[in-house]
Amino acid sequence: MMRTSSIRSQDDPLSLAIRPPPEESDTDRHIRLQHEAEARRISEQIDEELRFEREKLKKSKSDVKLLLLGQAESGKSTLQKQFQLMYSPASLESERMSWRTVVYFNVVRSIKKILTTLEAWDDIDDGSDSQSTLERQELGDYLPPRASSSATPSIHSSQIGVALSPPSPTSPTSPTASSPIRGSTAISDLRRRLLPLTNTEPQLADRLSGGVSVSGSGKGEVYVRSGWQARTIQKGQKLLRRQPKPSSPVDELTIERPGTALSVIDADPLVDDVARMLEQSREDIRTLWENQVVRALMTSRKLKLDEWSEFFLNDISRISARNYVPSTDDILHARIQTMGVAEHIFDVDIHGKTVTWHLFDVGGARGQRHSWVPYFDDANAIIFVSPISAFDQYLEEDPRTNRIDDSLQLFTQICSNQLLKRVHLVLFLNKTDILRKKLERGLSVSKYILSYGDRPNEYESVVQYFRAHFLQVHRRNNENRRVLYTHLTNVVDTKATQSIIGNVRDSIFRGYLQSAALV
Ligand SMILES: Nc1nc2c(ncn2[C@@H]2O[C@H](COP(=O)(O)OP(=O)(O)OP(=O)(O)O)[C@@H](O)[C@H]2O)c(=O)[nH]1
Ligand SMILES: [Mg+2]
């Protein structure tokens, strides 16, 4: 026999469970109703949250997801800063002071590297008569061999004919037997006086990385995770709260920033100490930086400073001022390695329509590349950044691999990846300014890239050669006949980069609209 719905509802366990007890008092009833109201409120809240999540998911599906890929030091984070400057200048402004820690770290590390290289000279010389001994010798005879020079590169996997090993640096401008090494006493004095400053390097590194160290990264690089700016400031403030109040107002860091009142919010005792030391050491740093031996070592490429070192050391008077506030140019030049993947969200106005862009800035060192893959699935576009100035450089994490070769291998992997076959592809051949300078200085491409042969050692020819190699990789791995948009870039040049970003944004958006129409 069929049961009616009313009979069924009587047996329904849920109805039974929520039916009020037969002899319920007024107080019990009141409490029960209160509980039921609360349960209803929670349930509605959960429904609302679920609705919100669903909306967000739906909305985020229509957002643009852009990956910045490329090897370490190629310029991805710098490009990300240019996007930030263009689409979210207020957020860059709010982070401005946290970049002071990075700039100081870059400066201190550069000074330390100069002093360590000079020390290597002292160690090799027996110290009895360093001046006359050094006068007799070429600078190169005194320096220890590069760690990488005995290594053999994997020529078989090479995308481009690279030199069998990093050529030993010789230069027409190498100091010769007549180059006097003057002032070794002066240098040891400088070293002693700069010691408290150089001793802060590990602490600055710790402040930036939050104590995280990454093995296998080559020269013991310092990595930062997404959100480090806020954490760096928070940690500094925590330490500041633990310290007694400064006795004199001169000790208190007061900073004037555009649009804000004088502020002490970003004060960090460590960074403040470094600022004080830098100010006191300003003349010593300048003397060291202008020292003839240092110059000679740099010219002969026995001392290889990082690209950004020169930018900061040339401007040490400004940077070591007590009330130093990093300029936008400083922020663009400041170097800190990215760890994992950092997501940056911008609202981008495109022809009257606002679209949310998610920019994923990845760590490019070999040990970091595994973390890219989860982001391939729903990416709309990639900007692959390759530093074409790096023809004379080898990977920090693998000194046998030429950096241009690594970049081509990485580009091959990206072009041939099945998950990325529909993704809009943009190639930035970056650091063109550094490439120009290297060629002007007479650095020979064919010495490092054997296959370059006897082509002219000139900018146009070199760019043309590297571009052709990247285009070939793309052509060979292009089942879907997708277009490759190529740009020659110098991403520390704000005006030029912002105009390129405008172009790239339009082309990515066009591709995005087309693929959306196909769905
Ligand atoms: N002169 C010049 N410097 C550049 C250019 N692009 C990047 N740099 C500098 O090169 C350094 C490395 O750039 P980053 O943007 O940190 O490199 P990255 O690709 O993010 O590196 P990882 O985070 O390690 O993967 C920084 O000091 C930048 O200022 C460029 O086109 N010209
Ligand atoms: Mg980076």
From TrEMBL:
Record GO terms (molecular function): G protein-coupled receptor binding; G-protein beta/gamma-subunit complex binding; GTP binding; GTPase activity; metal ion binding
Q: Which organism is it from?
A: Suillus luteus UH-Slu-Lm8-n1
From the UniProt entry, list the residue stretches annotated as the region Disordered. Answer: 1-28, 142-185
Gene Ontology CC terms, in alphabetical order: cytoplasm; heterotrimeric G-protein complex
- Taxonomy, superkingdom: Eukaryota
Which positions are annotated as binding GTP?
L332, H333, A334, R335, I336, Q337, T338, N430, K431, T432, D433
List the InterPro entries. Gprotein_alpha_su, GproteinA_insert, P-loop_NTPase
SUPFAM superfamilies, per the entry: P-loop containing nucleoside triphosphate hydrolases, Transducin (alpha subunit), insertion domain
Low complexity composition bias: residue spans: 148-158
UniProt keyword terms in alphabetical order? GTP-binding, Magnesium, Metal-binding, Nucleotide-binding, Transducer
Q: Its GO biological process terms?
A: adenylate cyclase-modulating G protein-coupled receptor signaling pathway
SMART domains xrefs = G_alpha (SM00275)
Q: Where does Mg(2+) bind?
A: T338
Can you name this protein?
Answer: Guanine nucleotide-binding protein alpha-4 subunit
Does GTP-binding count among this protein's keywords?
yes
